[in-house]
What we know:
By secondary structure, the chain is of the alpha/beta class.
Amino acid sequence: MAILKYREREYSCRKGETILAALLRQKVDLSYGCQQGICQTCLLRSNISPPDYAQKNLTDNQRSKNCFLACQWQPEEDVTLMTLESQDFVNAHVVSKSLLSQDVLKLTLEFHKPFEFHAGQFVNLKKSEQVIRSYSIASTPNYSNTVEFHIRLFNKGQFSQWAFNELALGDVLLVSEPKGNCSYSSEYTDESLLLIGTGTGVAPLLGIVTDALEHGHSGRIHLFHGSHYSEGLYLNTKLTQLSEKHENLYYSGCVSREVSAVFFNGRANDKAFSQYPDLKGWRVFVCGNPEMVKDSQKRAFLNGASCSHIFSDAFVLNE
Length: 319
Ligand SMILES: Cc1cc2nc3c(=O)[nH]c(=O)nc-3n(C[C@H](O)[C@H](O)[C@H](O)COP(=O)(O)OP(=O)(O)OC[C@H]3O[C@@H](n4cnc5c(N)ncnc54)[C@H](O)[C@@H]3O)c2cc1C
């Protein structure tokens, strides 16, 4: 058992227990989100060097300050914990809300000054200290003060129900700094890009595709969007029109639970990997359902993509 020192009190941490689980068990009030090492809401600092696995996807600056993901670290020795100086949340207000489909909301937020990010990154949106959720940015960093999100409605979802039903124009939301490395860079405008998204996983991919086109990307771009049913392919019109305007852009809508005469029948990643068996030199972007993301990372690699050219965001739900 390890002892955790936090705010001048001591807490036990059982063998195999994460720091976050130990503190929550002992009723410490901490911010946390996905509990799977992705959203970074539970970031803390320690007096000793955290193990690599507890610093996954942190910046060099955060690593050098001994920052770590409390939901990941299972310490075997005593640790003193510190909160971060600031969690870097900024205010933004709601400037538009509209439905993209029956259960996908397009939410646009406006900041007081331009919000800097890379196309494809995600942020954490804070409803309250207890309800902080990650959402990918669907728009591009075009130096405007607005940012667009696509939010899927969950039956009893604490954030999504509130965003659909209560959040009103003019309301203020707290937004974290942008996170993640599933993003486009203008350093490779001539390379081929394969993008696979399921559900609202298409949101960051829309940002990436738009950004690539705005940068005059000349390599092939192929976006596969998967859904169970055709009404889930909520960007079909927009992406079809975009692909008609740009001869290097291809869009394939795929449905896995209905027989369609319009869309491909089957899973988006099955279709993508069978169409592109040789991905040597390609960049691959995958977002959405966590199992699909995991499976696609493996298959992209087996089809020849280099590990450093595979970018992904698994939309894990809070436990
Ligand atoms: C990096 C990242 C990026 C993300 N980007 C987006 C995005 O762009 N758009 C987006 O919509 N979401 C995105 N998500 C998911 C998002 O963060 C939330 O988890 C999601 O919106 C649910 O939040 P909620 O508060 O509405 O639901 P919660 O209150 O967290 O409830 C979700 C819980 O509801 C249960 N549940 C209810 N209905 C279902 C169902 N149909 N299937 C499975 N479980 C169900 C599950 O038990 C689940 O744990 C992202 C997640 C991550 C980690």
